[in-house]
Amino acid sequence: MTNAAFDTTYLAGGCFWGMEELLRRIPGVIDTEVGYTGGWLDNPCYDDTHDSKSGHAEAVKIVFDPAVLPFEELLVHHFFHMHDPTTPDRQGNDRGTQYRSAIFHVDDAQRVAANAAVERVNQSGFWPRPIVTQITPFSRWWPGEGYHQDYLVKQPHGYTCHYYRR
């Protein structure tokens, strides 16, 4: 999906199945893909992400239309409401560095917007503890295995610990 009017970002907030399912429903999101980023191992597979074997996070690649969904709003109104960004390396029963909360920014504008979003959400008092989300430069994307793509569409009663907190 290539279009100069669209932007791409990479977000991690726990198990990528639940994140992808919620992200795909947001107006302005054009496409999603689950995969791995933020680690040191080339071409990781799902098992490589556990026990910090690869350093990668389970993440979602999001192609979005910034005219409909500005990046900072994606973070403030969606990303920080669909997972708990105050728990390091954990979402619900899922524990480990692969489940960390992270924003992998692709450029300086996304870095600035990510820092502003964290500040806005922290100041709002929405979460009782400070946000621990990592804001780090994007480096390389490794698509997840086919059975992980659109997992909750294929398995509508599958496991997820993601939901909107309002």
What does the secondary structure layout of this molecule look like, with pairings?
Elements: E1 7-13, H1 16-23, E2 29-37, E3 57-64, H2 71-82, E4 90-91, E5 94-95, E6 101-105, H3 108-124, E7 134-137, E8 142-143, H4 151-154
Parallel strand pairs: 6-7
Antiparallel strand pairs: 1-3, 1-6, 2-3, 2-8, 4-5
Helix pairs in contact: 2-3
Report what the structure shows.
The protein has 4 helices and 8 strands, in the order βαββαβββαββα. With 166 residues, the protein is α+β, with helices and mostly antiparallel strands. The chain has one domain: Peptide methionine sulphoxide reductase MsrA (Peptide Methionine Sulfoxide Reductase, Chain A), CATH 3.30.1060.10. The strands form 2 sheets. Strands 7-6-1-3-2-8 form a 6-stranded mixed β-sheet, covered by helices on one side. Strands 4-5 form a two-stranded antiparallel sheet. It is globular. The N and C termini lie far apart (32 Å). The mean pLDDT is 95.
